[in-house]
Design a protein that fits this description.
There is one protein chain. 42% of the residues lie in helices and 16% in strands. The protein has 306 residues and is of the alpha/beta class. The protein has one domain: Vaccinia Virus protein VP39 (Rossmann fold, 3-Layer(aba) Sandwich). The longest helix has 19 residues. It is globular. About 3% of the residues have low confidence.
Length: 306
């Protein structure tokens, strides 16, 4: 069996174990909106507000318990939740937390082109064995844009580390590993952890001839040592939540001042040119919007052909 097939099967098996042992805990994170766990995840999703000013159709990828689809539904959107296995999504549907769901392997999505206005992938891209194949499939199925919220490739934000790496590479390309300890990151279920950068997404969009991309940096989770079962039940009015919020605010300040890099990046790959209203909302929300140049050679060849 190929490595990527082993990884997918391991993810399925892991979710099957969880649904037997942790079903109530995983769904309580959605049902109990005041718990710490939900509020931490909501920080990811609130950056979607520029896209929620009118009703659209969404597909969520890697939405194992339906939380993202549930959030979008509460914002007045249409949403279909999906994951590599639908074991948790079935339970969420029974509880009335989501309306529609599908079992989807992102590398081979059984849907027509432009099936949804938006495709959202929150912290699932880095699990994909063939990550960029999955990205191209998500882009194919979206009509307006594909949105990724993922860990950032930290070396792109630390020029000193990159400088040291370039020096050490002259002697041994593995020496930098003593400083950059998570250079080769693997999860216990077997997959390599892909991390993203603005430049990588820009190259994908340019290769496909798309008109625009947008980015927003954000800090998430902070590696908080909090038992998941406790986090799923603990109300946000408790003292622990205030401490977490202070830590989040402090790290956001350090990121804003560029003392330390943000740890996550929201990437938007537009297939169609966003209208003025969308652009204004994005900029107001702190996104960096980048218009991409048209390929002059393809334009010239099209004119000659015509």
């Amino acid at each position: 069996m190929k490595n990527f097939e082993v990884s997918y099967q391991a993810h399925k098996n892991n979710l099957l174990r969880q649904v037997m042992n942790e079903k109530d805990q995983r769904l309580s994170s959605i049902k109990n909106k005041d718990c710490i766990n939900y509020q931490l995840v909501k920080k990811y999703l609130d950056i979607l507000h520029p896209f929620l000013f009118k009703q659209s159709n969404w597909l969520t990828i890697g939405d194992y318990n339906g939380l993202e689809a549930n959030y979008l539904l509460e914002q007045g959107q249409h949403a279909v939740a999906s994951d590599i296995t639908d074991v948790f999504l079935q339970e969420a549907h029974k509880e009335g937390l989501i309306q529609q769901y599908r079992e989807i392997n992102v590398e081979d999505i059984d849907l027509p082109d432009d099936s949804f206005d938006y495709v959202l992938c929150k912290e699932a891209f880095h699990h994909f064995p063939k990550a960029y194949l999955g990205l191209y499939e998500m882009i194919r199925c979206s009509r307006n844009a594909t949105i990724l919220i993922e860990p950032i490739d930290i070396i792109t934000k630390m020029p000193l580390l990159l400088f040291i790496k370039n020096i050490l590479d002259r002697f041994n390309p593995l020496l930098i590993n003593k400083l950059w300890r998570n250079r080769f990151s693997f999860e216990t279920v077997g997959n390599y952890v892909f991390k993203i950068s603005e430049r990588e997404i820009e190259k994908v969009a340019m290769g496909l001839g798309f008109p625009c991309i947008a980015f927003k940096k954000i800090n998430l989770m902070l590696n908080i040592k909090l038992d998941k079962a406790i986090a799923a039940q603990t109300p946000i009015h408790k003292k622990g939540w205030k401490k977490i919020k202070r830590r989040l605010s402090f790290k956001d300040l350090l990121g804003y001042l560029k003392i330390i890099p943000y740890n996550h990046l929201c990437c938007v790959v537009f297939k169609t040119d966003p209208d003025l209203q969308t652009r204004e909302r994005l900029k107001k929300a702190g996104y960096m919007v980048i218009d991409l140049p048209e390929n002059p050679h393809l334009k010239r060849m099209a004119e000659i052909t015509y």
